[in-house]
Fold this sequence. Notes:
Radius of gyration: 19 Å
Strand order of the largest sheet: 6-5-4-7-8-10-9
Number of strands: 10
Mean pLDDT: 90
Order of helices and strands: EEHEHHEHEHEEHEHHHHHEE
Amino acid sequence: xxxxxxxxxxxxxxxxxxxxxxxxxxxxxxxxxxxxxxxxxxxxxxxxxxxxxxxxxxxxxxxxxxxxxxxxxxxxxxxxxxxxxxxxxxxxxxxxxxxxxxxxxxxxxxxxxxxxxxxxxxxxxxxxxxxxxxxxxxxxxxxxxxxxxxxxxxxxxxxxxxxxxxxxxxxxxxxxxxxxxxxxxxxxxxxxxxxxxxxxxxxxxxxxxxxxxxxxxxxxxxxxxxxxxxxxxxxxxxxxxxxxxxxxxxxxxxxxxxxxxxxxxxxxxxxxxxxxxxxxxxxxxxxxxxxx
Length: 292
């Protein structure tokens, strides 16, 4: 693939040229100004793994459904390789996906969709020319430099009546992660080669199987991550490795408390809003913006 950079104002428009020009005519990536640092670890992750469990997306956006995206202009904040866009694009009028690290992967994977635009940029500072009807941020906001700033900017991308959806790691139920695993990860794994971290994730995943299929089959709901491992049994080995790798690979993670999510979705700013726990380790939240 060839890449042409064209100066346009203070940004650069990137035109992707392929052998099949018709197929790629809508694949353009706009390099936006960014204050967050690009992280190679995310590019490695989505170049080596595939999310093949669409049921998770529908669980994470609940109580919303695909009907909430139908015939609407949608923004995927932190689109990764575009796995969620593949689910939304068939019903949406247009989907814009933005990622600071993996926009090239997403663009290459989504060439079949003529109603998709992929941008490279920082979701905490992106200022679209026109607001979107639906904005969703799935599993990304807790990895940004400032989740509060990011949420505020996502809200700015909406108009009155827009739907805003968030799924994020919760502080509640993740004490083991933020007290012990996350400090160890920052100390021991940050400088490691990603291939080494991938092998470690495979070994950890293998070690979990005996526990998940014995003790965690018992009705001991007080066990840590009891609900979470219900999903573990629904997923294949490689998808479970992805879950472990994602937690070891992330350059930074903030675990979000319910009170923090409640401050995001203030009743005076949102109506028909919902905040519910998911598998005891995350929050899924959404609401309709009351005003511009």
